[in-house]
Design goal:
With 392 residues, the protein is of the alpha+beta class. The chain has helices spanning 2-9, 90-101, 125-140, 147-162, 169-176, 216-237, 249-254, 261-285, 289-305, 312-321, 350-365, and strands spanning 16-25, 37-38, 40-53, 58-63, 66-73, 109-115, 181-186, 192-196, 202-208, 327-332, 340-346, 370-374, 376-377, 381-383. The longest helix has 25 residues, at 261-285. The termini are close together. The protein binds alpha-D-galactopyranose.
């Protein structure tokens, strides 16, 4: 990264580097924007940001994944850049815009982005980009805004600037990760608990199907709209319901006729996924990873059948991985519609897993999946320039 920095920006003084993790979610698929629970962890891969301050009121943004740097005056950040080929710039620009709106005086900045997360594969490369920008820019200007506020601002930037109606999970997981722990978050109250996930016993395999997630934003927003419709109808009949997670299974069944079939199925996923995650957290606290894994696989089935966000490739990976020794369970991670499957498995069984999954998937789809192994990791941090990864 440093070579690219010098080529692009030339400056050498006052450069700092920050890192924020991507995430996987083990249970609680599509529950965050329904006021439900989620059980993600930050992972030991993510986004790096090198930053230096300027005094001319301009922002220059570059990425190792894009040959065309972006430059604009900071006072013109009130709308997204209209450039589909470089849409990534709107994530950091949105964050910088809302930081300025909240009163941070930004005199000008150079930023270079790099990272070791597959982009757009369901590991939250976007939230880690937002978090590392919020954390790096505030800290570089000597501002100590709390992580809670930065997480909130990043989600706001994604909703209002980028235009994806995501819930709070991704930003929260990246902001509040803890090494060797899962994060159990109540998205209605924002209460959080850490659950041990010891790396010497269990490890996460993430298999990228390399099936491109098509039209994700539109289909994601459609699911959000269907859940809002369910909430609108059910809350008029059930006064205690303020978010979809408040609906009990028998209440949903009692009012089933008021909902169209797709809307009923989305609501059924939400209600049953809440039950699965509450059970999953109890077994995880007892370090019972076999039972936790079984909940992941059930969650996948509900995401496939009721929420309808899976695809043939992801179903195949779940079916095949759960036949392997040492694998406790698997499910799609992220929004779905392609991307990755996460498996909870015993540490030490990585070699067989990689070999078998690559072999079986390639035989079936004629394309080799990418298998990576992750540990649960910590929140955003400043890192020494000497530890910045090399130029990819
Ligand atoms: C995406 C969104 C999250 C969450 C998941 C589904 O990753 O950004 O907020 O809704 O999908 O669980």
């Amino acid at each position: 990264m440093t070579t690219r920095w010098h080529e692009g920006f030339g400056t050498t003084a006052g450069i700092r580097c920050f890192f924020a993790s991507g995430r996987v979610n083990l249970l609680g698929a599509h529950l965050d924007y329904n006021g439900g629970y989620v059980l993600p962890c930050a992972i030991d891969r993510g986004t790096y940001l090198m930053i230096a301050l300027r005094t001319d009121g301009r922002v220059r943004l570059a990425s190792l994944n894009d040959d065309h740097p972006h430059e604009s005056p900071l006072e013109e950040l009130d709308h997204p850049a209209d450039d589909a080929d470089h849409a990534w710039v709107n994530y950091p620009l949105g964050v910088i815009h809302f930081l300025q709106e909240r009163g941070l005086e930004v005199s000008g900045i150079d930023i270079l982005i790099g990272g070791d997360l597959p982009i757009g594969a369901g590991l939250s490369s976007s939230a880690s980009l937002e978090l590392v920008t919020a954390y790096g820019v505030t800290r570089a200007f000597g501002d100590e805004t709390s992580l809670e506020d930065l997480v909130d601002l990043c989600r706001h930037a994604e909703n209002e600037f980028v235009g994806v109606h995501c819930g709070i999970m991704d930003q929260y997981a990246s902001g509040f990760g803890k090494r060797d722990h899962l994060l159990f978050l109540d998205c209605k109250t924002l209460e959080r608990q850490y659950i041990p996930f010891p790396g010497d016993r269990v490890i996460l395999a993430v298999t990228d199907s390399r099936k491109k997630r098509e039209l994700v934003d539109g289909r994601f927003n459609e699911r959000v709209a269907q859940c809002r419709e369910a909430l609108h109808i059910l809350s008029r009949r059930l006064p205690h319901v303020s978010v979809l997670r408040d609906v009990a299974r028998d209440e949903l069944e009692a009012h089933r006729d008021a909902l169209s079939l797709p809307v009923y199925k989305r609501a059924r996923h939400v209600v049953t996924e809440c039950e699965r995650i509450l059970h999953g957290v109890e077994v995880a606290k007892a370090l019972d990873f076999v039972s936790l894994g079984a909940m992941l696989t059930k969650s996948h089935e509900s995401s496939r059948d009721d929420y309808e966000v899976s695809c043939e490739e992801l179903d195949f990976l779940v079916d095949q991985s759960t036949t392997l020794q040492g694998v406790h369970g698997s499910r799609l991670t992220g929004a779905g519609f392609g991307g990755c499957v996460v498996s909870v498995m015993d540490t030490g069984t990585e070699g067989t897993f990689r070999h078998e999954i690559e072999r079986r998937y390639t035989a079936r789809f004629g394309i080799e999946p990418t298998v990576q192994f992750f540990h649960a990791w910590g929140g955003p941090q400043e890192i020494d320039l000497a530890r910045v990864p090399g130029d990819a």
